[in-house]
What does this fold into?
Amino acid sequence: MSEARMKIKIRGSKDFYAGLLFISFGGLATALSPSYPMGTGARMGPGYFPTVLGGILTLLGILISIRGLLRESSDPFGGLALRPLLSVLGSVLGFAFFVDRLGLVIAIIMLTAVSCLGGSEFRFREVVVFSLVLTVMVVVVFVYGLKLPFKVWPL
Amino acid sequence: MEILSHLYLGFGIALTLTNLFYCLVGVVIGTTIGVLPGIGPAATIAMLLPTTFSLPPVTALIMLAGIYYGAMYGGSTTSILVNLPGEAASVVTCLDGYVMARQGRAGPALSIAALGSLFAGCIATAIIVLFGPPLAELALKFGSAEYFSLMVLGLVAAAVLASGSLLKAIAMILLGLLLGMVGTDVGTGVRRFCFEIPELSDGIGFVVIAMGMFGFAEIVSNLGLKEKRQVFTSKVGRLMPSRADLKASWRPVLRGTALGSALGILPGGGAVVSSFASYAVEKRIASDPSRFGKGAIEGVAGPEAANNAAAQTSFIPMLTLGIPANAVIALMLGALMIQGIAPGPRVMIERPELFWGLIASMWVGNLMLVVLNLPLIGIWIRLLTVPYRLLFPAILLFICIGAYSINNNPFDVAMAAGFGLLGYIFSRLACEPAPLLLGYILGPMMEENLRRAMQLSRGNPMVFLTRPISLAMLLTAAFLLLLIIIPAVRAKREETFRE
It folds into this structure.
């Protein structure tokens, strides 16, 4: 699959979006911090330092996004590689969801299969063999060897 | 001779069977991930951190350190043979090393890289021995104000030396500091930024952040690129460099060692910057700069010595001050904290075996690496034929298992995925993750020292300017920022990074 088709195109510059991201994190911190006791300069409460940090982060975010608006053409964002992103994070979230419910074996097979979808090519037989080998290896090393408390089978 | 008795203690620890074994494990893993493009030392150490919890602290540290400097050796192999950097600090080695391989001189390039690294590693470790104890002694006199200013200086230096935009690096540090605030405040017991999620009341695990931002995010980034990996030559041929090669190399190795040792100590410095700087220096002072990029052995010798020297000396601020110089060191610091060791100058007095055992293991490990990388080069070349499409699911799986096993809680795995998403978006926005991790590690310490200093001064912020050491550090930080803002220096900095 060509790279152009895999990506969602987004207009605007890297700096602009980075700035927005910093503004939202900084804004969140400044908005939440005052709900914790502020204290005084001599006896700082838990709200003091995060308020200051959040404020500076918001300011920096504004500066960065303004700079991004000024040089939109030279610093294009380009977009995200959606397929790898979804398959990698999806397989990890799937592992997190299934590992305690259906056990390690199913979680591993699911993780390998879904994550391989994000690779450059998907060879069905290779993925089957590979996921089985990985499963056996992990169960032997981590469950029997290192004795990690995993639920192995669904039942 | 106090140093000798310390070294005796150190070797006594490093040469026990267990520690030798874990040192070997560390350098083998380090070489492996150094050789394999697409996984760096930060991701590996994050992945393996949970396995070190059950080891004694010094053994854990010996293994993790071995991974870091082992990667410096392995990285050069891939750069020279495949024209792909095995890891970031070996980018410049591609320029001349790969050309040398195409000229049939892969063997000498590999051996100069390994021997140069060995020399640099030994010298840089000696520098730690000489400068570590006095620095720790100085740091023992530090009060809260000095510590706070030191951390400001460290973070500013990290931002200045990070590649790319200064503003974005500072913003990443601030975000990291804020992430460090999540959880129960030690002083008051107030829960901050927890959103009623019970798992967050102990704070965000730094292993989770590192696994997400260095592991998952890197994999997604790599998959977004097209894979093209061709081993140029499977036959390395004669390994030994000729007399002319040695003659051309020894000066660059010396200069690279000096440069790397100096840059490694600086926060944010470390291996990557120093290899670029060394290449730039060698090119500038060469009698015929046009040879560079066409197989000049100086362009391999200098940077390879520099990156290994820097990898070793970047341990100095961590071991003496408790301040990490870069993301990898920050991970090791985190590992120590999980082991219940409060990093700082007291470590060297209270746990001398930790410092001296680690130092001694570095010499041992560097020797092991030369053996691993030169006579056994064939094995590493074969490793390069493992395709990434099989490698990355295995890495994903190991990270998942590692994240799960921290607390036996799938929530940590899901949170690491969240940081993977964030890390990938940041990398697409040209924001480096390393400053964030440094900020995160230093955040709680910084707040604690700020509070204590302000309490002692009864709320007078002038305390940071009236105490001479603190003032000196803040002035240095301001000076560094000014350097960057002055356009002439800025242009030169961008030029160095482009080369």
Observations:
- Residues 48-70 of chain A form the longest helix (23 residues).
